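This section describes the prediction task in plain terms. A model, or a person checking by hand, is given the sequence of a single protein chain and must write out its three-dimensional structure as a string of tokens. No templates, partner chains or ligands are provided. The sample shown here is typical of the held-out split.
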Amino acid sequence: MSQQYRQWYGSWKSRLLWMTVLFLPMTVVASIVLASGLLQKSGQTNGDLAPDITLATTEGDFHMSEQRGNVVVLYYSFPG
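The expected answer:
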């Protein structure tokens, strides 16, 4: 029975070593990327103008640039 235990314990230590070798560097790299803000630099910041978009409506085209100076409320809905 002690040989089976040693065999199981040895395989457990081997798996732990491989998990450490594989996942530790991945965790460190992911932490560095997230901390440096590389993933957060896309998109707009507060104070930027909204992009000019054109939407086709039943009453003609809607241009966001024509609404400058007006309050525009955008409502997104997902039916379901």
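For orientation: The mean pLDDT is 79.
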